[in-house]
Amino acid sequence: MANQIEWVALSVFVFFFALVTVMGFFAARWKSGPISAHLDQWGLGGRQFGIWVTWFLVGGDFYTAYTVIAVPALVYAVGAYGFFALPYTIIVYPFVFAVMPLLWKQAHANGHVTAADVVHGTYHSRGLELAVAITGMVATMPYIALQLIGMSVTIKTMGLKGDLPIIAAFIILALYTYSSGLRAPALIAFVKDIMIYIVVLVAVVVVPAKLGGYGVVFAAANDAFAAKGGLTGLTLKPSQMLPYASLALGSALAAFMYPHTLTGIFASKSADTIRKNAILLPAYTLLLGLIALLGYMAYAAKIAVATPNDVVPALFQALFPSWFAGFAFSAIAIGALVPAAVMSIGAANLFTRNVWKSYVNPAISHAGEAAVAKITSLVVKLGALAFILFLPTQYALDLQLLGGLWILQTFPALVFGLFTRWFRAEGLLLGWAVGIIWGSWTAWGNGLKPLASIDLGGASYMFYVGLGALILNVVVAAVVTVIVGLISPNRTSVTARS
């Protein structure tokens, strides 16, 4: 890391950060509709985003700043296993194409703003609604903290020490999100994604050219992994294939259960917009694959770092002129602003509709909902800031891991009701609870690692804990549905249609 301030890089960084700040406040006047009049306006941008806005927004909050930092860091640390993010982003888009338009239609027809709204509209269960809402809010908090961590890594690379820079960035983020709602990250996402594409495309051409080509890059990485031994390497070991596949599948199913990704879906203007985005969004998977290669390039560049998360900033600082390094760092930092804003909005929508309106003030007006959501978004960001200021970074990492496991347990309640009326709310709620408890207990017992093992026929198999918890969740939900159906056969399991 730099010991002195890199003034050229910092100047470029400040310029682009100031540009998106102005855009964030300008966004309040972008598109029609008064921001504070309705939660649909503040929290969903008026439900009017077309194909391109949705593409940039969903891509912007799905491929985050921490993705740019963490994926190459994982590839740098463990090799081929770190590429699990690629198949999971390939699996997820057919799911989006098939499922999300149905979810949008149900939400649009009934004025639903959150996943918990959809669940309550389907099952009329306050308990199940609250479970989905709390899971979404809790899973989102450490995710926002990770965006701020990704931003802080780049800021410290330029020689700025202490917490003041990240606090200043947080204040700017909080103010324009409060002012402009979802329109701010939607507008900024255009700039962020274009900058990230420029940075990555330049890097995958220039870095190998400076290092002697991709043959040298892969040879250096292979030598480094051979020296490490163990399960690291350029290809997967046989024992890694099942955990790799289960982690990819579980992550794909969880990805669009998060409040921030669903917010982008609900803000779209039509189901057709979502289908077209499911076709276009795989372009980000290509980008992600190129980003992951930066982890291998670090070995060829002989980058030595204290932690793997420092790999990408150190690589750009070592191989590029200061002005381009500043451009790259600003792209990563802006890449934190977009998802952090959408995440805080998604969590605020959940609290407003499924906690405040349901339990505190059922008669609240539309403008009152918008006001509560704006204040809640500030509180959520304050909580995320507290994570990185007062707790070790590892806590945010551990809780985000658990967050993925937890949010996956909302899948049956949200998705099954779109296709079948068979499951009962009691079964889904108990299945959710069993999945959360077993998954959390298993992950905790494994030192908060994402994988667990099971012994079958004298052999041991590793698998993703979240996917195992989901399977248990569905089994419990089905068994309880059958039992409740036998006890009260005249009750319908679902009392509302989309």
List keywords for this structure.
Sodium/glucose cotransporter; 2% strand; 498 residues; mainly alpha
Commentary on this structure:
The protein has 498 residues and is an all-alpha fold. The protein has a single domain (7-396), classed as Sodium/glucose cotransporter, CATH 1.20.1730. It is 74% helix and 2% strand. The chain contains 22 helices and two strands. It has helices at 7-26, 39-44, 51-62, 65-78, 85-110, 115-123, 126-157, 164-180, 183-211, 214-228, 241-255, 259-266, 271-280, 283-292, 294-300, 311-319, 322-360, 366-390, 393-408, 411-415, 425-445, 465-487, and strands at 451-456, 459-464. A hairpin with a 2-residue loop joins strand 1 and strand 2. It starts with 6 loop residues before the first helix and ends in an 11-residue tail after the last helix. Mean pLDDT is 87; it is low at 493-498.
